[in-house]
Write a structure and sequence with these properties.
Number of helices: 20
Number of strands: 11
Structural class: alpha+beta
Helix content: 40-55%
Strand content: 5-15%
Pfam families: HTH_30
Shape: elongated
Radius of gyration: 33 Å
InterPro entries: CdaR-like_regulators, PucR_C-HTH_dom, PucR_C-HTH_sf
Domain PucR C-terminal helix-turn-helix: 331-374, 423-478
Organism: Streptomyces griseorubens
Protein name: PucR family transcriptional regulator
Distance between the termini: 96 Å
Length: 493
């Protein structure tokens, strides 16, 4: 092709390959509207501006235009416009896209001929395609983000035992997902860089019959809640195909005990890291509360938590749910799981501390409140309300029963063969609020030695101790049962 003056200036309009150059901008690596506008400016030896419907500059150089004329083109009243005079030649072309319209303005010192006009027209079409593709992609990203946020919101409602609201929210997009009364929670761990792909595969493998959530607290974790037994096999097969990916699962729990199931899955995940198949399910073991008189235990728990009974139901449930998670995880992790600030978590737990008349810096206090809270959860699982006729036993009596005492002695006696007196170190560390520095000062040793003793006790007791949670609290209760630690006092008792 030739183009008169354009050919003389060596512009793209005068070169046979200009169309191919333009089409190159539609390749995945070259899809950039600003680059297309810059290309057009060089191709037709012009100043080019791409303006939004409101007159804002999206790409190119700012140009002085007749705003009324530009507005008519943007609104669609006219599709294009041309103006020539005083040695200035201007073309305005409307570019429609899904969420509005733009105006492509091209200003030249030489007249537009047929070839340069063709270049402008075809460039406008390419820009329209790029804008449409970009907005479609952006809409898809927004939809995926909104869906992920909705999944997280459902999980957060389940974490605070609001199963009614969780079911209502889920019903719109995933009908029947939460109709079951029980479910399992799984936690998958991978490198954070591949977590999004792993989450997408979880959704595909479970055929959207499970709640798949990117963990808000741990970057490499994906949480899966499912009422289907087949989900365990689906996730195992997925883990087999991904190196350095592990999965831990809970036992079946009611939806109201999602927080408990999540804690179990995290505990199982720690075991999965050392398994050849990279999977583990939480091992149901003898827990101290199962060795106590159920009616007396429920009555005791109701009495311990009685100071909170005067609160409105919603406030009480919110405080207890936050405290239950706050005793298992750090304030920062709890805040991310619940979708609130860490200051809110601390304020709620401070209020519970004040009403119960206790100090959560004391590990034994945390262990006893943890016991009371989990006893209360069991009321939702068909175990019935606290028995007002049951004897009003104190914690001392509950822990001194023969079954509990035998369990506690057997557990702690495992530490006796260690010549370093790890049992004494562990007892002192718990008494000092699980603080290695304070325990080291009390024992006259280095803080790192204290940590090594505690760490060495973990495989012997088959419990995680350095990470606060159920395992640590059970060991604290064992010390209380054998009389190695002083029992805390509560306002409710």
């Amino acid at each position: 092709m030739t183009g008169g003056e354009d050919t003389a200036h060596g512009t793209a309009a005068g070169r046979p390959g200009w169309a191919r150059e333009l089409l190159e901008h539609l390749r995945p690596a070259g899809r950039d509207v600003r680059r297309v506008v810059d290309w057009l400016a060089g191709a037709v030896n012009a100043e080019v501006a791409l303006r939004g419907g409101a007159g804002d500059l999206l790409a190119g150089a700012p140009l002085t235009l007749d705003e009324a004329l530009a507005a008519d083109v943007a609104s669609g009243r006219i599709a294009s416009a041309a103006w020539d005079g005083d040695g200035r030649h201007l073309r305005l072309v409307r570019i429609g896209h899904p969420t509005g319209a733009c105006v492509l303005a091209v200003f030249r010192r030489t007249p537009f001929d047929r070839h340069t006009s063709d270049v402008v027209t075809h460039t406008a079409q390419v820009i329209e395609l790029l804008l449409t593709a970009h907005e479609t992609q952006a809409a898809g990203v927004r939809l995926r983000r909104a869906t992920a946020d909705l999944r997280l919101a459902i999980l957060q409602l389940l974490m605070v035992e609001d199963t009614v609201s969780a079911r209502r929210v889920a019903a719109g997009l995933w009908p029947g997902l939460l109709d079951a009364e029980t479910a399992c929670v799984y936690v998958l761990e991978s490198d954070p860089s591949v977590r999004d792909r792993l989450a997408a595969e979880c959704i595909e493998r479970t055929q959207e019959e499970a709640l798949v959530v990117r963990c808000p607290a741990v970057d490499g974790h994906v949480i899966v809640l499912s009422p289907r037994e087949a989900t365990a096999a689906d996730l195992r097969s997925l883990v087999e195909r991904h190196p350095d990916t592990f999965v831990g699962g809970s036992v079946w729990q009611s939806l109201a005990r999602t927080a408990t199931a999540y804690g179990q899955a995290v505990s199982a995940l720690a075991v999965a890291r050392f398994r050849p198949d990279k999977t583990a399910v939480y091992a149901e073991r003898t827990h101290p509360e199962r060795l106590m008189d159920p009616a007396a235990l429920r009555t005791w728990a109701a009495r311990v938590l009685r100071p909170l009974d005067a609160l409105p139901h919603h406030t009480r449930a919110e405080l207890l749910a936050t405290t239950r998670l706050g005793l298992e995880f750090t304030a920062v992790a709890t805040a991310k799981i619940l979708g609130v600030s860490r200051n809110t978590v601390r304020a709620r737990m401070d209020r519970v501390e004040s009403m119960l008349g206790v100090d959560f810096d004391d590990v034994t206090v945390r262990a006893v409140v943890h016991l009371a809270l989990h006893t209360q959860i069991n009321l939702l699982d068909g175990q019935g309300p606290a028995d007002s006729a049951a004897s009003a036993r104190r914690l001392t009596e509950l822990l001194s029963g023969p079954a509990v005492s035998s369990w506690a002695r057997e557990l702690l006696d495992r530490l006796d063969p260690d010549p370093r007196n790890v049992r004494r170190t562990l007892r002192t560390w718990i008494a000092e609020g699980a603080n290695a520095e304070r325990a080291a000062h009390a024992l006259g040793m280095h803080a790192q030695t204290v940590r090594e003793h505690v760490r060495s006790a973990e495989p012997v007791l088959e419990r995680q101790l350095l990470a606060a949670g159920t395992d640590l609290y059970e060991v604290a209760l064992a010390h209380l049962a054998v009389g190695d630690l002083e029992q805390p006092r509560f306002a409710g008792e």
